[in-house]
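U., I forgot to send this yesterday:
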Amino acid sequence: MVAGNPLDRDDQALSPSISPDGSRIAYTSFKHDRWWAPWRADYKWEIVTSAPDGSDRRRLTRSDNIGIMNFNPAWSPDRTRIAFVSNRDGHWAVYTMAADGSDTRAVAPSVVVDWRAPVWSPDGRRLAFLERKPESGTIIRRGLYTVGADGSSLKRIEGWGSPLYAESVPAWSPDGSRIAFVRHDDEMRAILATDPDGSNPSVVFDYTNIPRLDSLPLQYISWSPDGSKILFSAYGTYVGVVSANDTHARLLADLRYGVEGISLSPDGSSVTVRLHPRLEKTPSGVNFDVALFTMNADGTNKRVLARYEHGPDGTGNVAPANGRS
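Result:
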């Protein structure tokens, strides 16, 4: 394990992002004294990087106020900068910093953002992110924006006769020419795509009347490396894939656990799925739950790579599956 403990709420390592060259991992680190005692002086919600084996750990953000949180780092394609979200200036906003933690800049500081990670365009020149707009009751609207990496050319994506509200982190196509996202409301339940400036909108996959999907907002989406397909998960339960040009969708997996991330291999031949740990234990006090598995891009040949091991004292670890399925 590189950092944190998946079963210890006082020692968490979240939202990992691997640098493009694979030499560093950036993640959100949270450390807290047991029983919710006063916060430790050296760790709060901070951005940390390390080597893939957990060595050479470097803390990039330092918050003097215990209410300040820094979340969800994302490496730029050239590895020189890291985008993240923080409430350091009184509301949640997008920031970028150099890979060593210096030169922190606010990007689109006037927009109150959702806590989910901003997404770099493939050429590193723009970022896409979600605005957070609370409405009546518990309703949250999330508008989609793009902005230049230097903070210029802020653009709110609109179309279909009204402002767009996104229910997923946006996904850039491999060539950077399109942005896909999910809209799930009373008017439309679909994966949509637009040009980065909001022009040429299209419906990629309308799932309004698709059994098992119409009641579940699609949560994570990812383009295939060749741009021909979009991978999606439906609120942590289903994983599927849809063609980017003919709206034909196929469910690849029906899962019992919450999906926390999906990705396609660089050659598009396999899918990796990361799952949230379940805290239930067997009567013997030990339980094994799937943490990470892969499958072919058509849903066949599922292989478990790692499992959460739950100990009788409430501790846990992530362990290799050792061939178990």
